[in-house]
Amino acid sequence: MKILVTGGAGYIGSHTVLSLLNNGYEVVVYDNLCNSSEVSLQRVQQLAGNTVEFVQGDIQDKSALTALFKQYPIDAVIHFAALKAVGESTQLPLAYYQNNVHGTLCLLEAMQVANVHQFIFSSSATVYGEENAVPYVETMTLGTPSSPYGASKVMVERVMADVALANAQFKGVSLRYFNPIGAHPSGQIGEDPKGIPNNLLPYVAQVAVGKRDKLNIFGGDYPTADGSCERDYLHVMDLADGHVAALDWLIKNEQFTGVEAFNLGTGTPVSVFAIVNAFEQATGKTIAYDVAPRRAGDLPAFWADANKAKIQLNWHASRTLQQMMEDTWNWQSNNPNGFDS
Ligand code: NAD
Ligand code: UD1
Fold first, then answer.
1. Which of 68, 105, 154, 236 is 20 to 30 A removed from 275 (C-alpha atoms)?
2. CA distances from 99 to 103, 147, 317 (A)
């Protein structure tokens, strides 16, 4: 089976490509490298002892996509390619809607022309918005995310639902990720944010390696047990395996058409203070921090009801918080400047 992976050079994509290769799938990666490096794919190939076809290109380039589907007999598409910085999306909404929504429309059109109907989409817990109570369950009506980034994910989920109504062959899966962290245990691939990290774990790791002075903990007065926000952090290798489970499920379920959404999370909320403690314990490093004002748009706490993926996909997140911290540190300390190290 040949799988097209858009955005496959990025953080989650590269770990997923490795899991796909290790499970016997052939992979074609299509990525414009706007937020990644081809070095990630070189390392994936070394780790897998197997090769990946790489085509550099943009998902908004319709003629390149048409040529891609003509060149390779693709069985299914896993679609990671997107811009993902929440704060930046509020400054550049048009760029986010162009890339994330228009880009997905171009990809779905090219798939339709090429008669490819199996599609797995990188969605996010942010689609539940602030209206829904926690833990989030797939049966909930989607909410109103606080950013254009989040809105772009809701829009694509809506597009998938409408495509499925119009095309009886369409088999779509929307994977709603909670908070992926960590790295492959080899320390060869991991998250390599450009500039100042927006997300918690890359920031903590950069404090530990001496690139940043101290962590700002955004808010110590939330209505949670210790006053800091709670999230559902899962190991990126569990997330990668979740994609393989979803793909296996799509392929085996020949009768299935339509769209199915799955939460990919652990089902357990963990606070920012608990993350700092866990990182210190797993690595022996001390993380200097200040408790700073709340960050605009942050919700106090959200986590997954993770039962649907467990029952239907036979998948659950099995790696521990300690493994997430150790693997983050292994990657960061071996590659202090990411793939440029
Ligand atoms: P990433 O930035 O590391 O990977 C995205 C990849 O897509 C990059 O390699 C980038 O170069 C590529 N890309 C972006 N726009 C493109 C375009 N127009 N054409 C071709 N390639 C393009 O991000 P990630 O963390 O690996 O996220 C992957 C997906 O998962 C994204 O859709 C993101 O929105 C979603 N997601 C991520 C998180 C998270 O916490 N990292 C959480 C929920 C959902
Ligand atoms: C972010 C996105 C969300 C996306 C999710 C996926 C925002 C507002 N939301 O969520 O759309 O689906 O990633 O992973 O960016 N924190 C600090 N100090 C820091 C960085 C973060 O205290 O320097 C705190 C945050 O306030 C939050 C927690 O750490 O409580 C996690 O933050 P982050 O990693 O940015 O993820 P989310 O905010 O959950």
1. 154
2. 5, 15, 30
